[in-house]
Amino acid sequence: MAGWPARELRMFHIQTLNQIAVCGLERFPRERYEVASEFSQPDAILLRSHRLGAEALHPGLKAVARAGAGVNNITVPAFTAAGVPVFNTPGANANAVKELVLAALLLGSRGILPGIDWVRSLTALDEQAMHATIEAEKKRFRGQELTGRTLGVVGLGAIGSRVAEMALGLGMQVIGFDPALSVDAAWRLPHQVRRMESLPALMARADYVTLHLPLLESTRHLLGREAFSQARPGMRLLNFARDGIVDDAAALEALRAGRLAAYLTDFPSPALMREPGVVALPHLGASTGESEENCARMAADQLIDFLEHGNIVNAVNFPTLVLERSGGHRLAVSNRNVPKMLGQLLSVLADANLNVLDMLNRSREDIAYNLLDLETAPDATVLTRLAAIEGVVGVRRLPPV
Ligand SMILES: NC(=O)c1ccc[n+]([C@@H]2O[C@H](COP(=O)([O-])OP(=O)(O)OC[C@H]3O[C@@H](n4cnc5c(N)ncnc54)[C@H](O)[C@@H]3O)[C@@H](O)[C@H]2O)c1
Ligand SMILES: O=C(O)[C@H](O)COP(=O)(O)O
């Protein structure tokens, strides 16, 4: 570690902004990391649904990791502009959501919740009267079966594909809509899923619609008045994706008009709470021990790999880039994705007589990221010169291996 600046040799500080499963926190080796909720200038932030904006930025912040899927609680563009990758943990909580969707499909089909409430109201009756009342009245809670009905899955990623597979197993017909399906996600999708060309096409055919897409500006109120007007009368809607994707006022209108028979959501709002036909859960989709542990481990491992080696896997705002460590002295440089950047970086290194042993460069939208392994250690002047190049937004010397 000779020549390594003392400031950069200190422990990495990881700030947690939500309760993160202990097995994830234990991934951080104690000799190199301190993990706490109180750091004012952390190297990295680890969180779940806590809202995180640009005020969290400071010059030493290197990364943000969301132990979970949705990143709409984070002002991602502000972190991108500052050269800070934002990681998430795709798929790590998908099974937990899938299982809750199964429960919601059943709650939306059978008189389970009103039936339970009604049975509780019968406590004053003796056994014989209770039995007679139940057999006389149970027709009020009659439901319908899932087998043979059509499920429309909007968003066919990690969760949507698992939900589709589960529904096929229940004997449902499955149709799906996803205008941005990745190649990997397409591979995961069971071949029986019929892809729809548009949301209206899906709405017109589905008895049940389940949402598994991110909240983006383009998906805000995607399920609004227009979409509900295209729905099959009596459709059941499941929202285990995000509030904001469904326009609650339009959902209420659709419920009252009988277009929607039930709205099952993980995102309660005052407008919906008392409406018959609404089943609202307190954002429980990922709240299982297994899912919290999967997310925490994955988020921690990705942070460690980035902080120690500069590798990026599962960032939502940076390219994926992994370069094996083969010795040498590693630099990580982020820059705006504009021409002539790489040439300028290499020219600073050449001027300092630094030989490049290995390097990788990738870009994603407006940002580019470079890992450079050098034969000899760059000094502080080189780092300052790299940081001064117009368009460079981050320069970091990685700890030696
Ligand atoms: N209720 C919960 O606790 C809970 C848990 C996990 C995830 N979520 C939510 O579910 C979302 C999906 O999670 P995931 O792990 O499946 O993510 P994912 O990235 O694997 O899949 C999302 C899919 O949505 C698709 N998509 C994007 N825009 C779309 C559009 N306009 N119409 C249709 N599809 C579109 C994408 O192409 C992608 O295939 C997350 O963003 C999060 O908001 C909620
Ligand atoms: O996007 C997600 O992963 C879920 O909404 C889970 O959120 P949580 O980690 O706050 O439970």
Automatic annotation (TrEMBL):
<keyword id="KW-0560">Oxidoreductase</keyword>
<dbReference type="GO" id="GO:0004617">
    <property type="term" value="F:phosphoglycerate dehydrogenase activity"/>
</dbReference>
<dbReference type="InterPro" id="IPR036291">
    <property type="entry name" value="NAD(P)-bd_dom_sf"/>
</dbReference>
<dbReference type="InterPro" id="IPR006140">
    <property type="entry name" value="D-isomer_DH_NAD-bd"/>
</dbReference>
<dbReference type="InterPro" id="IPR006139">
    <property type="entry name" value="D-isomer_2_OHA_DH_cat_dom"/>
</dbReference>
<protein>
    <recommendedName>
        <fullName>D-3-phosphoglycerate dehydrogenase</fullName>
        <ecNumber>1.1.1.399</ecNumber>
        <ecNumber>1.1.1.95</ecNumber>
    </recommendedName>
</protein>
<dbReference type="InterPro" id="IPR002912">
    <property type="entry name" value="ACT_dom"/>
</dbReference>
<comment type="similarity">
    <text>Belongs to the D-isomer specific 2-hydroxyacid dehydrogenase family.</text>
</comment>
<keyword id="KW-0520">NAD</keyword>
<comment type="function">
    <text>Catalyzes the reversible oxidation of 3-phospho-D-glycerate to 3-phosphonooxypyruvate, the first step of the phosphorylated L-serine biosynthesis pathway. Also catalyzes the reversible oxidation of 2-hydroxyglutarate to 2-oxoglutarate.</text>
</comment>
<dbReference type="Pfam" id="PF00389">
    <property type="entry name" value="2-Hacid_dh"/>
</dbReference>
<comment type="pathway">
    <text>Amino-acid biosynthesis; L-serine biosynthesis; L-serine from 3-phospho-D-glycerate: step 1/3.</text>
</comment>
<dbReference type="Pfam" id="PF02826">
    <property type="entry name" value="2-Hacid_dh_C"/>
</dbReference>
<dbReference type="InterPro" id="IPR045865">
    <property type="entry name" value="ACT-like_dom_sf"/>
</dbReference>
<dbReference type="InterPro" id="IPR029752">
    <property type="entry name" value="D-isomer_DH_CS1"/>
</dbReference>
<feature type="domain" description="ACT">
    <location>
        <begin position="330"/>
        <end position="400"/>
    </location>
</feature>
<dbReference type="GO" id="GO:0051287">
    <property type="term" value="F:NAD binding"/>
</dbReference>
